[in-house]
């Protein structure tokens, strides 16, 4: 562990992050352009004392979980995150497999998009980060565990998920999910995460087996869809999908396709989030239960982490 270098790196990266980039107010009395130690501690979910000891080269070696939390709080790039791990005496987690942490640049974009709903997803359909408007539309998609993390799994195993789409669009949406998963399986042959997900879906869903056996392949790019929201009604949305160079993460951006939808989204932004009873156990399309600023993915145990 290179304590002095680690301390210097953390201090400099903290000074480089503007509060607005992580959803914090930048008041007129702020003496520094970067984050305060208290703010880093809050964002990373650790004590202020521990942040102080890290920056003063007085701490014990931090765990990989703590380093992951610091990387998200400081909005580190992939290269910076790897450097952080090595300074602390850990090997960075491998790049192969399914992404579990949203790229720092994509998380920054969520904040910059403001009232435009946007979500960062892994290539197998796990939500890694959302901005506030995405949470207002879909609820917090990051609270799911196990197989329910994956949108395709919820779609084919939990009927209530489909309620957010009108009946006439549900078949098309299901086919798109399967075709996209087919494309991922082709890019990542033999990948344990993908193989296990497909096997479990084939076991529990006859509909998935039928669509999978059609062997249709398509990567999500642009789509127009109708979302049925319990507070503001039908929303006609254009969905643009931006992918990272390695195709491992996607930024899904939803924009209103007509003036009426734009007005309804503006109303939703004003109303915020109220408590709703989840339908059929709740999942991908369930009404939201809480609001929040852009949230980055959490460090998780298991293979394929990056």
UniProtKB/TrEMBL annotation:
<dbReference type="InterPro" id="IPR010982">
    <property type="entry name" value="Lambda_DNA-bd_dom_sf"/>
</dbReference>
<dbReference type="InterPro" id="IPR041413">
    <property type="entry name" value="MLTR_LBD"/>
</dbReference>
<feature type="region of interest" description="Disordered">
    <location>
        <begin position="277"/>
        <end position="306"/>
    </location>
</feature>
<protein>
    <submittedName>
        <fullName>Helix-turn-helix domain-containing protein</fullName>
    </submittedName>
</protein>
<dbReference type="InterPro" id="IPR001387">
    <property type="entry name" value="Cro/C1-type_HTH"/>
</dbReference>
<feature type="domain" description="HTH cro/C1-type">
    <location>
        <begin position="34"/>
        <end position="81"/>
    </location>
</feature>
<dbReference type="GO" id="GO:0003677">
    <property type="term" value="F:DNA binding"/>
</dbReference>
<dbReference type="Pfam" id="PF13560">
    <property type="entry name" value="HTH_31"/>
</dbReference>
<feature type="compositionally biased region" description="Basic and acidic residues">
    <location>
        <begin position="292"/>
        <end position="306"/>
    </location>
</feature>
<dbReference type="Pfam" id="PF17765">
    <property type="entry name" value="MLTR_LBD"/>
</dbReference>
């Amino acid at each position: 562990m290179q304590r002095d270098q680690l301390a210097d790196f953390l201090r400099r990266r903290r000074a480089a992050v503007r509060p607005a980039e992580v959803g914090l107010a930048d008041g007129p009395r702020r003496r520094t352009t970067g984050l305060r130690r208290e703010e880093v501690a809050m964002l990373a979910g650790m004590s202020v004392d521990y942040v102080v000891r890290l920056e003063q080269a007085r701490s014990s070696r931090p765990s990989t979980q703590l380093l992951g939390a610091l990387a998200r709080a400081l909005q580190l790039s992939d290269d910076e995150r790897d450097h952080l791990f090595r300074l602390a005496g850990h090997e960075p987690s491998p790049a192969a497999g399914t992404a579990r942490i949203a790229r720092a640049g994509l998380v920054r974009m969520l904040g910059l998009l403001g009232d435009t709903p946007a979500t960062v997803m892994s290539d197998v359909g796990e939500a890694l980060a959302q901005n506030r408007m995405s949470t207002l539309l879909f609820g917090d998609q990051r609270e799911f565990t196990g197989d329910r993390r994956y949108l395709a799994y919820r779609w084919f195993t939990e009927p209530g998920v489909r309620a957010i789409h009108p009946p006439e669009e549900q078949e098309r949406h299901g086919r798109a999910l399967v075709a996209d998963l087919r494309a991922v399986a082709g890019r990542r042959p033999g990948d344990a995460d993908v193989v296990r997900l497909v096997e479990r879906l084939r076991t529990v869903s006859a509909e998935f087996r039928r669509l999978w056996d059609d062997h249709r392949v398509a990567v999500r790019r642009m789509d127009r869809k109708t979302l049925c929201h319990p507070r503001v009604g039908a929303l006609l949305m254009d969905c643009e999908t931006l992918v990272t160079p390695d195709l491992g993460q996607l930024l899904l951006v939803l924009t209103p396709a007509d003036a009426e939808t734009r007005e309804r989204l503006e109303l939703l932004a004003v109303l915020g989030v109220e408590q709703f009873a989840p339908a059929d156990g709740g999942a991908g399309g369930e009404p939201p239960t809480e609001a929040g600023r852009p949230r980055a993915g959490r460090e998780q145990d298991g293979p394929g982490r990056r």
